[in-house]
Amino acid sequence: MHNPMAQVDDLVAPLILFRRDLHAHPELAFAEHRTAAQIADALRAAGLEVHTGIGGTGLVASLKVGNSGRSVGLRADMDALPMHEQSGAAHASLNPGVFHGCGHDGHVAMLLGAAQHLARSRLFDGTVNFIFQPAEEGKGGGRAMVQDKLFERFPCDRVFAIHNWPDLPAGTVATRPGPIMAAADKFEILLEGRGGHAAMPHKTPDAILAASDLVTQLNCIVSRRIAPSASAVLSVTHIEGGNSHNVLPAAARIVGTVRTFDPAVQDRIEESLRQIVDGVAMASGTRATVAYTRYYPATINDPEAAAEALSAAATVTLAETAPEPAFTSEDFAFMLQACRGAYLWLGQGRGNGDVSLHHPNYDFNDNVLATGIRLHTALVEQQLSRAPAA
Q: Which has the closest alpha carbon to 322: 298, 301, 292, 338?
């Protein structure tokens, strides 16, 4: 019997070349002009209708088959990271300080391959919206597309996204109902004294000492102010102040991140942080300013959509329910706030625990491209081949 899924293998070799070309020419958030143009050209060549400039450099291609009014969205992110690559690959980044260190080049290739395959196989009844999103790496491209009326212009009954995951064996899939990725907050604290001679600390508030005290107390928030049954992370990631061995600086700055899954826990941490900062400032005689930004909400899978995704994935590969969410964040969260759906992990399986996402030696595993295409296809054929709910 002829198996349409076997046609996927014919797409892999040219998609590897496409993916590696994107890898060699990475672009940062909202600057994915070459990337978007390459994707749009390939989609049009496959006969799809392409809409560009959505949420900045984002684009959507729609494919309608049959007469059903049902629809599904599939999303891939396009942007690279502001970091130097050290992989030594032949297709390594040609843009210094810009690097596809999170595998978004692979996500694009998988979704493009799915669009090419579905345009050819057409074994569904309804509309597929292929969503290529800019600026996932901390800049909120998902939010920008939603605010640009993504789902009003391209309605979706469900929306799905796949992210490669080095912690899973190659080609396997995992997801879970409810939270799968954390909310991401950023805090920046400025402590100001007057500055003075290091030999006369009694004459000026010591911003460095206050900052040191503050770091210690901040790291006790999760262990002492949050219930042990809750999940949260607070990390101080940057401290700066002073530039001489014999001068007490006039100011010190502390920067860090908070990761949570529950808005109530998120509120409690921010409240506690502000209280502690005020207390340290009062005790040290410094002035304190806090900038606290909640830039990504938690990524929350719709339980029914997550179950459907696992069922579809099981027709392609080994699929399992993830036992716990990850503390990394993802701006697909904004799309899931606007449309029911699920976020899935596709195993990267490099077998090297040192090479994780955002590592300078990271490179997407081309051996899982075919699985990613088949997974996208299975989601579409499941969502748009079954009878609509009564």
A: 301
Q: Please identify which of the residues 32, 77, 79, 270 carries the catalytic annotation.
A: 79
Is 10 among the catalytic positions?
no
Q: Coil, strand, or helix at residue 56? A: coil
Report helix, strand or coil for 205. Answer: coil
DSSP string computed for 213-253: HHHHHHTTHHHHHS-TTS-EEEEEEEEE--S-TTEE-SEEE
CATH number given to 183-296? 3.30.70.360
199 burial level (CB within 10 Å; 0-12, 13-18, 19+):
exposed
Catalytic residue among 32, 105, 136, 363: 136
Q: For 273-302, how does the pLDDT look when each residue is reduced to its tens digit (9 = 90+)?
A: 999 999 999 999 999 999 999 999 999 999
C-alpha span between 115 and 47 (Å, rounded): 10
Clarify whether 136 is annotated catalytic: yes
Note the pLDDT tens digit of each residue in 362-385: 999 999 999 999 999 999 999 998
pLDDT by residue (tens digit) across 244-279?
Answer: 999 999 999 999 999 999 999 999 999 999 999 999
Give the integer Cα–Cα distance in Å for 45 and 64.
16
Residue 71, helix vs strand vs coil: strand
Question: Which residues are bridge partners to 178 per DSSP?
Answer: 301
Strand partners, 326: 181
| Domain segments of the chain as ranges | 4-180+298-385, 183-296
Fold of 4-180+298-385: Aminopeptidase (3.40.630)
Query: With a cut of 50, which residues of the chain have pLDDT below it?
Result: 1-2, 389-390
Closest CA to 341 of 180, 182, 185: 180
Burial readout 32-48 (b: 16 or more C-beta within 10 A, e: otherwise): beebbebbbebbeebeb
State residue 2's pLDDT score. Answer: 44
